Amino acid sequence: MDTDCQQASLFFQPHFQREVRADFSGSRVSSDGGALLLREVANKTGLLQSAASCFTDHRNQTFVEHDLTCLVSQRVLGLCLGYEDLNDHDFLQGDSLLALACGRHDHQGHDRHQPEDYGKPLASSSTLNRLELAVPPLGGETPVVDRYHKVIFDPDAGQQLFADLYAKSHRHPPKQVILDLDATDDVLHGQQEGRFFHGYYDSYCYLPLYIFAGSHLLWAEQRPSNQDAATGSVAAVSSIISRLREVHGWHRTTFIILGDSGFCRDDLMTWCEANRVHYILGLAKNSRLEAKVSDAMAQAVDTATQGQQRITEYTRFAYRTRTSWSRERTVTAKVEALPSPREDDDSIKQNHRFVVSSLPPSRHSPKALYRNWYCPRGDMENRIKEQQLDLFADRTSTARLWSNQIRLWFSSVAYCLMDALRRTALSKTAMAKAQCGTIRLRLLKIAATIRTTTRRIWISLSGCHPAEPVFRHAAAVLHQT
Known about the structure:
Layout: H1 3-8, E1 10-15, E2 18-22, E3 29-30, H2 35-45, H3 47-52, E4 55-57, H4 68-80, H5 89-92, H6 96-101, H7 125-132, E5 151-153, H8 155-168, E6 176-183, E7 186-187, E8 196-198, E9 203-206, E10 209-213, E11 216-221, H9 233-247, E12 254-259, H10 266-274, E13 277-283, H11 287-292, H12 294-307, E14 311-319, E15 329-339, E16 348-357, H13 366-374, H14 380-390, H15 401-424, H16 436-444, E17 448-452, E18 457-461, H17 468-480
Parallel strand pairs: 6-12, 12-13
Antiparallel strand pairs: 1-2, 3-17, 4-5, 6-10, 7-9, 8-9, 10-11, 13-16, 14-15, 15-16, 17-18
Helix pairs in contact: 2-15, 2-17, 4-15, 8-9
């Protein structure tokens, strides 16, 4: 028996009287047949080409085999398909299906310059790493380019990309847009630049700022954690709204800002009031606020004591802080009296919640403002979890803060691609509200073989995949649109 074959084979428990062996000799078999759907979405939206336009390439094009569009596509599609590390691409180099999805003309790797690269149509990890080593432009001047930093990334164009994608998803300017702001922790396990300890999260972390409009991502900014959660929020909101108004003509659209108490800052509210933007922001409770609703709370406690049931009341009043606010504003309060679930305990728990808003009080009752406007913002947490858990936005292990911002940006582009697939092709299927990780596991991870002839590329997907009906529906929808 051949020694090489013995070393290449993997041995498993026998099946009755037969030996069970396996090897990795299926050279053109891909585990990511669902990349075809991502390719269709990317081509129809122009997302990956737009993302690549945020970079400037100063490499000598005579020796370049992988242009920026291909590199960005490979990195983003890799994240969508579950490959969080660049090292994974050293093994994915020979995946012809992924190369097809990335737009590589030579998807079989027959035209590579070096003989050792023959049959590897995609870039290696070292080539992809040039994207994460990209440097920002130095003002309006030509950046200094050295042998290790020949790719330039424009952060302003990178953030504007998300607003442009959001605008393209609407045929006409909407009447109303709700921008949901939130900050979260990105735990660090090394000595990265900008690493600080955050008392609330009890860890060394970054404090990225996210802004969503429904499921659409509009802003993702990596920040050190030694600052207020609302730092930079005025600039971010101003950039998004001015882009939508001035570039895309959304002058008649009503914008509403949602945020928790971490964003209840006078500069943000003052900017909104001066720029025709409404806000609904959580307000941290204090003794003055509790005194304002003491009568309502006392009545709720009495009623709850008599009936041993939860009593919730809503009220509204004018309020101004002693020093931090520049003017008086309208505050909506929810007061709750909660009886103890224990039969031997007659105590009543008091719960206060406060929201400050610029919406006209005559049009919105306190109950409607709190329950119908403020409470639904909790769904944004699911979108952040999708980015961090499913698309590896928390994979911020490079030494520099700037490089970790680029990693967050790539994860954000991957989220936009997955969300576009969900909204357009899966809207009338069982996966219409599935999270990105579920879509990847159930729809994108399909075994496929690829065969190329003179006139066609044949791709054979697994014939026993349980998501075949959903896949067929999604492909038909994308083909028709």
